[in-house]
Amino acid sequence: MIDRYNKTPLYIQVKEEITKAIISGRWEVNSRIPTERELMENYEVGRATIRQAIDLLVSQGYLYKKQGIGTFVLRDKPSLGFEPLISLTFTLRTKGIKISNKILDENFFIPAEELTNKMRWKINQKCLYVKRLRTVEEIPVAIENSYFSQRFSNNNSKFDFKKSLASMIINDLKVDISKVDQTITIRIPNSEETSLLEIDETTRVLVMERWIYEENNEEPFYYLNFIVPENLYYVPMINY
Fold it and tell me: Same structural domain for residues 225 and 114?
């Protein structure tokens, strides 16, 4: 139950109540959760509180959003997403699987306001953009769009972007990571994505967005947009 006299923020209380519903099985994997309005009425809180709670559960891997349809239970245990921070490169190589990263684009630019807002950065800030195609045993598995803040960009010349970016961030740059935010959505791919991933237009893709923050800085220093075919990463099929 929500306790307005409790010092714990309301959105955290709502998040905990929803988590209990998922873990207990009351809200099953593959099911669509109640609408925002239904949740507002059930927990007697405002829309902003519900959205904060839902966004937090999405970032923790309990829920995911399907554009135009609703929010669904992804799993009954938390997950960091389809590429853990220790990196897909490290994980697959330890299993003896051949992986490679093809650089599709690498350049400096000042992003437009819409992209800047998505990055959670200040406007008119130069960034380094690296676009890679990830392959496993020569099969395309993901498109990775990485955006590094300007304070990192000055050091880029000494890095090989065909290698693990996670290793570079942790071991080479020695970034003191304070937090990681993440969202997961599912959608139909565009023409470029179907071509690069060698899928047809009916194969849906999962899109993970990740913001990595370092200590003593309010802005993320790294924004990742990671796209993978749905059939290469388990998400419950939705009947609608």
Answer: yes
